[in-house]
């Protein structure tokens, strides 16, 4: 039998200067118009690594998302720890589910 592989979801809080990023705002046109203004801007991802190690990679520029590298401030463990680990086969779907759930709560969200 093969070894079951798992991944970890993670959420990075982004600095407010991301609101000046045209592409970020194109993906989040609801953000300024809703009563939720003030909810954080976040990046949602998934990784085979520990989320802290992946965050360090983003910040150092290694296999980094431009948004996470430039605007990432810190991990928001309370938004993802209870969801980990996830089976490799479900990681992409669960990443999107988490991103959409945060968006419905009023967060401005970037994910790939």
Q: For the terminal residues, how far apart are their CA atoms?
A: 32 Å
Provide a count of the helices.
Answer: 4
Q: What is the approximate shape?
A: globular
Overall structural class, as computed from helix and strand content, comes to alpha+beta
Number of structurally distinct domains? 1
The percent range for strand residues is 15-25%
Q: Would you count the extended β strands for me?
A: 5
- Percent of residues in helices comes to 25-40%
- Rounded to an integer, what's the Rg over CA atoms? 14 Å
Biggest pleated-sheet summary = 5 strands, mixed
Low-pLDDT segments: none
Mean pLDDT across residues? 92
The SSE string, one letter per element, is EHEHHEEHE
Lay out the secondary structure.
Blueprint: E1 6-14, H1 22-27, E2 41-47, H2 51-60, H3 66-71, E3 72-75, E4 86-87, H4 91-104, E5 108-110
Parallel strand pairs: 2-5
Antiparallel strand pairs: 1-2, 1-3, 1-4
Note down, in words, how this protein is organized.
- This protein has 112 residues and is of the alpha+beta class.
- The protein has one domain (6-110).
- It is 32% helix and 22% strand.
- The protein is built from four helices and five strands, in the order βαβααββαβ.
- Strands 1, 2, 3, 4 and 5 form a five-stranded mixed beta sheet that branches.
- The protein starts with 5 loop residues before the first strand and ends with a strand.
Brief account:
This protein has one domain.
From the structure above, extract its key features.
alpha+beta, 4 helices, 112 residues, five-stranded mixed β-sheet, 5 strands
């Amino acid at each position: 039998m093969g070894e079951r592989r798992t991944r970890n979801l993670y959420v990075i809080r982004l600095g407010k200067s991301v609101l000046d990023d045209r592409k970020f705002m194109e993906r989040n046109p609801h953000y300024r118009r809703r009563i939720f203004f003030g909810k954080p801007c976040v990046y949602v991802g998934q990784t085979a690594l520990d989320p802290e190690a992946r965050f360090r990679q983003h910040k150092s520029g290694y296999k980094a998302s431009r948004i996470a590298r430039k605007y990432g401030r810190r991990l928001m463990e309370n938004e993802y720890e209870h969801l980990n680990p996830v089976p490799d086969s479900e990681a992409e779907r669960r990443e999107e589910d988490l991103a959409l759930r945060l968006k419905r709560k009023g967060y401005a969200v970037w994910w790939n």
